[in-house]
Inverse folding.
């Protein structure tokens, strides 16, 4: 089991996106939260998900695209038993986050 750490930035992005999703997706208001929670569960279980996206301060950063909402979750594994979530990003922005 891995310890999951969510940065303040990621927490804010998740909350903002979830509020928008609830207000604008009445047919599936909980879908985004469900996808994020599922991804967090997999990360905590140590599943090898995502693709190598780049490097930040000497750390490999991985990206996983949430299947139905198309949001991107960026994370690293700074220690063998830790997964750190850095950002949630919408694909519609047309650019990558500055991590």
């Amino acid at each position: 089991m891995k310890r999951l750490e969510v940065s303040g930035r990621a927490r804010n992005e998740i909350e903002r996106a979830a509020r928008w999703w609830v207000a604008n997706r009445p047919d599936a208001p909980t879908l985004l939260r469900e996808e994020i929670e599922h991804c967090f569960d997999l990360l905590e279980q140590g599943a090898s998900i995502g693709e190598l996206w780049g490097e930040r301060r000497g750390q490999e950063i991985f990206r996983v695209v949430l299947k139905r909402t198309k949001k991107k979750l960026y994370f690293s594994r700074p220690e063998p038993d830790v997964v750190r979530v850095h950002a949630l990003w919408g694909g519609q922005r047309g650019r990558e986050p500055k991590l």
In short: The mean pLDDT is 94. The first helix runs from residue 8 to 24.
